[in-house]
Write a structure and sequence with these properties.
Order of helices and strands: EEHEHEHEHHEHHEHEHEEHHHHEH
Oligomer: single chain
Number of helices: 14
Shape: globular
């Protein structure tokens, strides 16, 4: 459901996807959601050649797997999608939690309800969804109220093309849970967005270039916006809204149909190394659940409170859960938001 980065097709293809010989590993990941240097080091250390194909959403990945796509070993689902895939019996038990280095993982990131001990998947990365803004146009905004006020005042703002994230802002502003299945609460959350709809220029993922150029004042986006903030520090800023926000977390999971199961488990063990998790963070600017990696992360990232929020801020972030059939409530309200005049 959450698109961290735009899928780029086959970003890296060192071997054919269908290769099942020894020494192969096929990853299926969000576009641009792993540092290529991590994969290069894995190949250098193990001799295992890696192929990487990408997707743009949890739903796209699940649909492809359910449609019978074969050849993939590892996927990177968000926590709620991991739970869905577990219920569908698509994931393999890896016993990664029995590796001594699993002690590096902060237990608060064992979030999957179907895998509370980490027997199946390895916590990979976490982040939040906040606001990236053009400093000259947006000024010193502090939260969602200021963000939506920009649109109400005639400045262009963009929200994500994601029903849970957009309606989630309405929930946050109303003081209700982003996972609410109360029909009245979901409707009121949508009403909050509709009340500001005229000020929202678009629902899109392609907002960073527009905010950077000054065509748009601010946009709802992911913490990975810090990559662009670092490139344009005088132009861009990123905040976690003071009213609260959503967070995301992806885990590394091995598919039951993995043709290279042993190599997939080797990759999970490889990623437990603090220096490897730190290498990934250095390029990705997401948080890592690997506590031993913290001392190895560049200071400008480790000290960035939007990437590594204080615990009191982290405690206010809400993570999406699998809603099952109740997701239809959100689908209906999303249609109402999209069609509102």
């Amino acid at each position: 459901m959450t698109m961290k980065y735009l899928a780029l097709g086959a970003v890296l293809a060192l071997t054919p996807l269908g290769a099942q010989a020894e020494g192969k590993l096929a990853l299926y990941n969000w576009g641009d959601y792993i540092n290529p240097a991590v994969l290069e080091k894995f190949t250098e250390e193990t001799g295992i050649e890696v192929s990487l194909n990408t997707y743009g959403s949890n739903e796209e990945m699940l649909a492809k797997i359910q449609a019978g796509a074969t050849g993939y070993d590892i996927v990177f689902p968000s926590v709620h999608m991991q739970d869905i895939m577990s219920h569908l019996d698509l994931l393999a038990e890896t016993d990664i939690n029995e590796d001594p280095a699993f002690a590096n993982i902060d237990p608060q990131f064992l979030r999957a309800k179907t895998d509370p001990e980490g027997k199946f998947c390895l916590p990979y990365a976490f982040g939040n969804v906040g606001i990236v803004y053009n400093k000259a146009l947006a000024g010193d905004i502090t939260g969602w109220k200021d963000f939506l006020a920009l649109g109400d005042a005639g400045k262009k703002i963009i929200m994500l093309d994601d029903l849970r994230e957009v309606i989630g802002v309405g929930h946050i502003m109303n003081g209700t849970s982003v996972n609410s299945t109360d029909e009245a609460e979901v409707e009121k959350a949508a009403d909050y967005i509709i009340a500001h709809k005229k000020g929202i220029s678009a629902f899109s993922y392609d907002s960073i270039p527009l905010v950077t150029s000054g065509d748009v004042a601010a946009a709802q986006w992911y913490v990975g916006a810090n990559i662009f903030v670092n490139e344009h520090p005088d132009t861009l800023g990123y905040i976690i809204p003071e009213e609260g926000a959503t967070m995301y977390q992806e885990d590394i999971c091995v598919l039951k149909t993995a043709p290279n199961f042993d190599n997939a488990v080797k990759f999970l063990k490889f990623y437990l190394k603090p220096e490897i998790a730190a290498l990934n963070v250095e390029q990705q600017m997401n948080g890592t659940p690997n506590t031993s990696a913290q001392a190895l992360i560049p200071k400008e990232i480790a000290d960035n409170k939007t990437i590594y929020p204080p615990q009191d801020v982290l405690d206010k972030l809400q993570i999406f859960e699998d809603l099952g059939r109740d997701l239809q409530l959100y689908n209906s309200e999303w249609t109402r938001i999209k069609t509102a005049q």
